[in-house]
Amino acid sequence: MNEELFYAMALTRLTNFNFQQALELYKAVGSAQQIYEHRNDIGDLVEACSPRLVEALKDWTEAMKRADFEQKFMQEHQIRAMTPLDDDYPQRLTECADAPIVIYYRGNADLNQSKVVNIVGTRQCTQYGKDLIHRFVLDLRQMCPQVLVVSGLAYGVDICAHKEALDDGYETVAVLAHGLDQIYPYHHREIAVKMLNHGGLLTEFMSQTNADKQNFVRRNRIVAGMSDACIVVESAAKGGGLITAEIAQSYDRAVFAFPGAVGMTYSEGCNHLIRDNGAGLITCAEDFVKAMGWQDDALRQQILSDGIERNLFPDLTSEETKIVSLLQQTNDLQLNILSVKTGIPIGQLTALLFQLEMKGVIKPLAGGMYHLLM
Questions:
Q1: pTM for this one?
Q2: Which strand ranges, in their side-by-side order, compose the sheet holding 229-232?
Q3: Which of 104, 113, 165, 262 could pair with 172 in a Cys bridge, judged by C-beta atoms 3.0 to 4.6 Å apart?
């Protein structure tokens, strides 16, 4: 383990989960190791550092002992730890003012996939909610095959989302409210083990940290921050899913909710979110894909599922194939550049591009650009 990570782990103990102040200090100084080296004059280096934190940073003895213990635990259990300085750290989280300085991870999923969504809601998920999750994840997989599904491994909506993701071939990550030396709730251990090979388990808490009530709210900010969008399936008027949605809004993430019948207990939260413009209304995966602007990915997948492969175009003429081959090498080209590079006069090229558009192979963009969809 590198020294920077070791000092970052110790720093999290000293800051006592004052996330925003810890991250501000970390960014201001540049590294946890530098904070340690300036532990006796940190107040001079960072004027905004509170007197209480200045005093706490003077003695690292116990914090470093704890970090050393955790380091050994990580080595024994194949756990990785990451700081915002690491490429593997969820880069979306670095945009959040209260992001954790250290996260602990077991799994094989890329936490920086191009598309990441979280699915959250009540622990009392009804059959209506289960059916929504099943249909949504299944259809989303068909339209957008590369999406990381995030949730919190809790009863209800969370575990349904993880199970559906696994069943449909998605990778899925659970953000935990405790250390990686336990699984809570224990009944979800079997699913959690499966996720280690098809996703992972993520937390900011060291081992021997229990699933205390306040830790779930802390967990929710990571669920929200590491995702592009938050989807609330079912929720009562109050609940953890609504907290995650509120945090996601504060991070400028997209928030969506499925509506439910008026008067139904576990639809109230979603209906209120939609009514108060706290979430966009969706009824299916197609609604979500359109709202997120992910149609190109969906269209590309549809073309592939219809049997048209990127490198094999049996229904294309030789001139059309020449255009497609060029766009494969350098996509999004202007009409005049396409004409020069293919040697096809602009009048003839315009007609060919129109035919390719009708076949679903390309689409025109603003500024006379053309984009290959396959």
A1: 0.79
A2: 80-82, 103-107, 199-203, 172-175, 148-151, 116-120, 229-232, 254-257, 280-281
A3: 165
